[in-house]
Amino acid sequence: MTLADLSSIATAISAIAILISLVFVNIQVRQAEKYQRALVQQERASRTAAIAMHLMDPAFAEVHFRCMRGDANITDVELRQFMGYCRAAFLGAEDSFFQYEEELLDEKAYVSFRASLRVLLVPPGMRAMWQMTHDWYGPEFAAFMDALVAEAAGLPPVGQLAQWKKAVEAEQRKAA
Q1: Does residue 51 contact residue 88 with C-beta atoms inside 8 Å?
Q2: Are 158 and 124 in contact (CB under 8 A)?
C-alpha cells in the first residue's frame, strides 16, 4: 500500500466523519428548535395564567365585568385598572403575533391564540379599549387586531354564566 493509497483512505474516513458530525449537528439543531418552541409556549401559558389569576381578585373581577360590558358608570380608577388589564392582554397578544411571524409559534398554537383573542374581543368594552390604545402598537399588529375586532363585533355576546349552567346540566344528564 502506497502513501497515496493511505492518503485516499484517510480522506474518505475524514469525509465520513464529517458527514456523521453533520448528522449529529442537525439532530441537535432540531432538538434546540423544539426546546425553544416549548419555552415560547410555556411563557405564553404563564403570561395568560397570570392575567387570568388577576381576575380572581373579587374587587377587580367586578370592575372587569362592568368594563367588559361597557358600563358607563365606572370611576377613573376602575378605568385605569381595566386599562392595565387590557394593556397586559394586548401586549401578550402582540408578543404571540410577532412570535408567529418569526416562526417561533407553530400553526396549532397560532390558531388557538387567534380564536381566544377573537372571543376576548367580543365584549364592547374590550373593543373600545382597543380603539383607545390602537396607536400604542406597530402597524402590522394594529392591522391584525383591527381585523379581529371587526370579526368579533359581528359575534353575539357570550353569556358565560348561562353557557356554564347549560354545560353543567348536560354533564349531569350524562352522569345520570
Answers
A1: yes
A2: no
Cell of residue 95, nine digits: 408578543
pLDDT in tens, the chain (176 residues): 787 777 878 788 888 888 888 877 787 878 877 777 667 667 767 777 777 777 788 888 899 889 998 999 999 999 999 999 999 999 999 999 999 998 888 899 899 999 999 999 999 999 999 999 999 999 999 999 999 999 999 887 767 777 778 888 888 888 87
Cβ contacts of 124 within 8 Å, gap of 6 or more: 68, 69, 70
Report yes or no: 81 and 63 within 8 Å, Cβ to Cβ: yes
| Cell numbers found for residue 3 | 502513501
Say which residue the cell 374581543 belongs to: 121
The CB density around residue 114, as the number of other CB atoms within 10 Å, is 16
- Provide φ and ψ at 75, rounded to 5°: -90, 170
